[in-house]
Model the fold of this input.
Amino acid sequence: MKEILAFDNVRLTYHTRQGEVTALKELTFSLGEGEFAAMIGPSGCGKSTILSLAAGLIKPSAGSVTLGGSIGYMLQRDELFPWRTIEKNLYLPLEVQKKNTPARRARALELAEQYGLSGFLKSYPSQLSGGMRQRAALIRTLVMEPDILLLDEPFSALDYQTRLLVAADVSRIIRSEKKAALLITHDISEAISLADRILVLTARPARLLASHETDFLSSDPLKRREEPRFSGWFETLWKELDP
Done:
């Protein structure tokens, strides 16, 4: 499997009024094309910082971050502009990057049709449920045809039931589009249900504690939660996070 993202002995140090802080130390992992990975770790260990490094928003103090394609970034909230229709929100990345061509707008409408948004294109974000807005945010991200999606706890603002359904929906779309994805989450169950591989981080300074390949019969997150092995995975990861 071709690597699309690689961290090689990455260290990140920054300065505060209290002195120098090392956020990441000797962090090494990679992500292959079409692979869905989830990253979990203790609160405050620097998971979102890792996404910023992957996106090139900040530079490592040592080591290297190698990106083998274009990225799409999906945040905790949908960040749709409330004064623009869903259709106009889908076109926003095209306008920003000056690629607002008829072919790319047609692709945006094709994605909306394929994933159940075609009936809401003239609606405004306030008229959609939280789950539908997150679906629109994902399609907006896919409009630019990224090779890898960076997902920064994109379901955390949703209530529990909606979160389960939207996570399953987003997983289906990402896998259907054959995109690589790196999901940051505090939710162990969410990581197990969604990912092909789970990366476990230590407390700060974060290093890779473990990397697990999941072995479920289905890629459907809701079906995975029903499998007997789900509880075994949860116990394993829980012990690693709370040794």
About this structure: Helices lie at 47-54, 86-96, 102-114, 130-142, 160-176, 188-194, 221-226, 229-241. The mean pLDDT is 90. The chain has eight helices and nine strands.
